[in-house]
Structures are given as C-alpha cells and as structure tokens.
C-alpha cells in the first residue's frame, strides 16, 4: 500500500498554476518535516550543523491545489495524506530522478506565528478506486462537529481501561527486549 502522512511547515508561499491543456489547477510546495529526535540528540545534530528536518516535495491538484494556494502561507503547519510518486526527466543530457508526495487530503494544523485556525478545517479529494480517468469525488468539510463524537456516546467508554484513570501503565506487562521478535 502506497500511503504517506506528513505533518510539516510550508517552506514558502505555494504558487498556483494551471496546466496548459485543460487548465487543471496544480500547486507544488515543500514541507519541512521535523525528524523524531530526543532533545539531546537534536541539540547534538544542530551543534554539528546537521539537519533535523527533511524537506519533502509535494504536489496537489484541482480544488486541493486551489485551497492550499489560497489559504496556506510560508510557515503554516499543515498535515497532508497522499502517495509517493517517483519520476525522472532529462536535463543537460543527464537523467534526474524525482520523488514527490501527491496529496489526496490536507488538514490545517497551525498558522505561522503560533496562531490556530478557527475551526476543524479539512479538505478531502477522494480518487476512489484509482480510476484516474474519472472526475474525483471532492468534499470540503468546515463543520466544527464533523469529527467530534457525541458527548454521552460509546466513544467515551475506554474498552481497555482498568478503571484507574491516574495510572497510564497499570495492567501492562513489562517487556524485555529479548521478547521482541525483531
């Protein structure tokens, strides 16, 4: 399964373009995604002028592209879900290989400068069963309650709880590294 989820910050303002044939909206942007490092390891790498983030090239199409171009700016934190796509092209007689994330869905996380978006905004562009010749089923969700379960519902009951909400690890068995099969 080719599926990628990223949470990162835009390295610059996205620039919306349209394809010459058909006028389909497309936006290419780069996400700076922090590596999962402990505080000490991060400081060590930074003191040696090493990278603590990866810069991932992303491409979005149609209404997802328009949404990103119109509402996202340099430094904004967004979450994207999509797929990896590789390709290559010739430049000056040399073959250049590329790897991009083709964005299917995008969620706003936070604005540059620490502000949050006012509601739970997400944009979903569902391509269904990879039938690329079909028009995608697109939906924009701007409903504050869309992803929140009702207050007194079964979602509030933790099936794995042992009744003691103060202990995070009670009921779990200690595991030795020798017990892990890899």
UniProtKB/TrEMBL annotation:
A GO molecular-function annotation: single-stranded DNA binding
Biased composition (Acidic residues): 166-182
One record GO biological process: DNA replication
GO CC terms, sorted: nucleoid
Gene3D superfamilies: Nucleic acid-binding proteins
Subunit structure comment from the entry: Homotetramer.
Protein name listed in UniProt: Single-stranded DNA-binding protein
Organism: Peptoniphilus lacrimalis 315-B
Gene from which the chain derives: ssb
């Amino acid at each position: 399964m080719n599926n990628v989820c990223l949470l990162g910050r835009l390295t610059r303002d996205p620039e919306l373009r349209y394809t010459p044939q058909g006028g389909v909206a497309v936006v290419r942007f780069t996400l700076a995604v922090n590596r999962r490092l402990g505080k000490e390891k991060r400081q060590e790498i930074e003191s040696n002028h090493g990278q603590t983030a990866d810069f991932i090239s992303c491409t979005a199409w149609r209404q997802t592209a328009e949404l990103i171009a119109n509402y996202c700016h340099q430094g904004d934190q967004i979450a994207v879900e999509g797929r990896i796509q590789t390709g290559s092209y010739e430049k000056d007689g040399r073959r250049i290989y590329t790897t991009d994330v083709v964005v299917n869905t995008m969620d706003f996380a936070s604005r540059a400068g620490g502000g949050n978006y006012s509601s739970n905004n997400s944009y979903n562009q569902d391509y269904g069963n990879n039938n690329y010749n079909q028009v995608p089923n697109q939906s924009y969700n701007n409903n504050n309650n869309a992803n929140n379960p009702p207050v007194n519902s079964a979602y509030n009951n933790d099936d794995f709880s042992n009744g003691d909400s103060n202990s995070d690890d009670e009921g779990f068995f200690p595991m030795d590294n020798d017990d892990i099969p890899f």
